[in-house]
């Protein structure tokens, strides 16, 4: 029974992997993400109890791929929106620091300490991914390779770090 399932899935992988990757690469504009999502599609197929009984396995593959692409595009949009907000903050700080009062300097130091504390309390992989990206300027795919995780995991780690930093800043500003 398990052999039939594995043989069926292996045949689908052989017949449809390249076409699915091409389909997703067009939708996402990123062949690496497409390959990763295709892998996820086949993992989901394997999790089915009896995938060989699907009425139209090709339709299942493309529907699952399409759903994953939509989810990925939503995550990407949220991520870029969040990064755009984060990138505006340094400009505001730079303008304020040209004629900063002692109170402003103290507040900036407190905010910096809060952010550092938030980063230091992150789980190891989230902290590493964030620092590799922000300090070393590494791409998500390079970080994923270094940490031996998926690119989507790297995205989640960095979003987690950014959320923690944002929370730390909001808490610091609420105290003042």
Q: In summary, what is this structure?
A:
84% of the residues lie in helices and 0% in strands.
Which terms would index this structure?
Arc Repressor Mutant, subunit A, mainly alpha, Rna Polymerase Sigma Factor, Chain: A, 2 domains, 84% helix
List the helices and strands and how they pair.
Blueprint: H1 2-28, H2 31-47, H3 57-97, H4 102-120, H5 124-134, H6 140-147, H7 151-175
Structure description:
With 176 residues, the protein is mostly helical. The protein has helices spanning 2-28, 31-47, 57-97, 102-120, 124-134, 140-147, 151-175. Helix 2 (31-47) crosses helix 3 (57-97).
User: Topology as H/E string?
Assistant: HHHHHHH
Number of helices: 7
Q: For the terminal residues, how far apart are their CA atoms?
A: 65 Å
What is the makeup of the main sheet? none
Q: What is the mean predicted local confidence, pLDDT?
A: 84
Q: What global shape is seen?
A: elongated
What is the CATH superfamily classification of the largest domain?
Winged helix-like DNA-binding domain superfamily/Winged helix DNA-binding domain
Tell me the strand percentage band: under 5%
Radius of gyration: 22 Å
Number of structurally distinct domains: 2
Q: Under the CATH scheme, which architecture of the largest domain would be assigned?
A: Orthogonal Bundle
- The percentage helix is over 70%
**Structural category:** mainly alpha
Q: Look at the structure and give the CATH class of the largest domain.
A: Mainly Alpha
